[in-house]
Design a protein that fits this description.
Adaptor protein ClpS core domain-containing protein; three-stranded antiparallel beta sheet; Ribosomal_bL12_C/ClpS-like; ClpS; 2 domains; 8 strands
């Protein structure tokens, strides 16, 4: 049996919560409304959430389907934090799936990665950098973020854990964009 992989859902600030729940139920086999709501809320509060744990090929397929529906998603090996999670093993259609169920534990507070407007970089370049640096960033979301920064002087790129936020910020800066990080106190 191949090692399990996690499908992660990242908060994006653009998709409505109801839409995220609908997509999760459409894409993930056996997903209940309650599980979809819990996953959406955890991603909204903490910047990301585990959607499902399954074989690598299935995880990559689920991730691509989530992205195809406009959600920010990524895949990672389920090693490391595997024992810290509460999972439910289920058989569906002859395949073995591991569903994540929330386990109460203290999470690091979420941080916002901010993009600031500048008068130097072309809009197309900003969109390209956002798609290169932020996992699962779609063209539409990158364009919306760029336009918001251009019009309002600043835009939230992503909300995630502090270490990831600082990494994204440094990558944006390394590509010539103006970026900063701030605590996401009070939610999104």
């Amino acid at each position: 049996m191949s090692p399990p992989y996690r499908v992660l859902l990242h908060n994006d600030n653009y998709n409505k919560r109801e839409y995220v729940v609908q997509v999760l139920m459409k894409v993930i086999p056996g997903m209940t409304v309650d599980n979809a709501v819990n996953i959406m809320q955890e991603a909204h509060i903490n910047g990301m959430s585990v959607v499902i744990i399954c074989a690598q090929v299935d995880a990559e397929d689920h991730c691509m389907q989530l992205r195809g529906n406009g959600l920010l998603s990524s895949v990672e090996p389920a090693s490391g934090g595997w024992l810290e999670m509460v999972v439910v093993e289920a058989m569906r259609g002859g395949r073995r799936w591991w569903y994540y169920r929330r386990k109460s534990r203290k999470m690091s507070p979420p941080y916002r990665v901010l993009l600031h407007n500048d008068n130097y970089n072309k809009r197309e370049y900003v969109v390209q950098v956002l798609m290169k640096v932020i996992p699962g960033m779609t063209v539409d979301n990158a364009v919306n973020i760029m336009q918001e920064a251009h019009i309002n002087g600043m835009s939230v790129v992503i909300i995630c854990a502090q270490v990831d936020a600082e990494d994204h910020c440094m990558q944006l800066r390394g590509n010539g964009l103006l970026s900063s990080v701030e605590p996401a106190s009070g939610g999104c």
